[in-house]
Design brief:
With 191 residues, the chain is α+β, with helices and mostly antiparallel strands. The protein contains 7 helices and 5 strands, in the order H-H-E-H-H-E-E-H-E-H-E-H. It has a 5-stranded mixed β-sheet. Bound molecules: coenzyme A.
């Protein structure tokens, strides 16, 4: 239910986050302990909702890169397109329930392939925590949750791209730089 009493729409089934066996399978160390159902005082971790347009979701993403001027209609159209791709897009957010603002987010994209007996692989993208909430283990929680989720939804591997300075952060979750592998990119618009 959203704050205005209208039924909200989740990008994916929230139940998927509840039975992750986080306590047994998490990778990072948490002191104090937090978990997906209890990410901290006045905080809630859940799938992205269509109402998050009004909860500062797009403004949070500006801490990562350019977002542009996106209308509510454009946001909802993109949200519905992502939702109608069955089980391919998993954006999780952390909301400060006192301010009703989204303060952290990350996305798992599941790609389907023919190789490896019609396998799927995962990519983790757009990991971000509002600067006022950094250092509270929320970034770790987001990456741990999506890494566990990638396995749960059947990915045979999960990968991500990051700057050199972020390698120590992602190493906490078992991500390694694979020898001989390079990330190559061709841009059609400048960074
Ligand atoms: C990277 C980011 C998501 C981390 O979120 P956070 O909530 O501050 O991080 P956490 O509190 O969960 O993580 C803390 C741990 O990660 C380490 N860490 C955090 N940011 C780090 C960084 N930039 N580089 C290396 N380690 C980092 C901390 O030292 C700490 O380690 P510890 O658990 O051993 O004490 C956050 O700083 C952010 O949003 N940055 C801007 C956007 C960005 O760069 N995103 C990543 C794109 S690849």
């Amino acid at each position: 239910m959203s704050t205005n009493g209208v039924e909200d729409i989740y990008l994916f089934d929230p139940e998927l986050l509840h039975d992750l066996e986080f306590e047994d399978q998490k990778c990072a160390i948490y002191k104090p302990e937090i978990n997906p159902t209890d990410p901290g005082e006045r905080l809630a971790l859940r799938p992205l909702c269509i109402s998050d347009f009004d909860k500062g979701y797009l403004s949070l993403l500006t801490h990562l890169t350019k977002v542009g001027d996106i209308s509510q209609e454009q946001f909802e159209e993109r949200f519905q397109m992502m939702k109608t791709q069955p089980s391919l897009y998993y954006t999780v957010v952390i909301e400060d329930t006192a301010t009703n603002q989204v303060v952290g987010s990350a996305t798992l994209v599941k790609e389907m392939h023919f190789i490896r007996q019609c396998a799927s692989r995962g990519r983790i993208e757009d990991v971000v925590v509002n600067s006022s909430y950094q250092g509270k283990q929320l970034g770790k929680l987001l990456v741990d949750v999506l890494t566990l989720l990638s396995k749960k939804v059947g990915c045979y591997k999960v990968s991500l791209e990051c700057l050199d300075k972020m390698v120590p952060f992602y190493s906490k979750f078992g991500y390694v730089k694979e020898e001989g592998q390079n990330y190559m990119c061709r841009r059609y618009i400048p960074k």
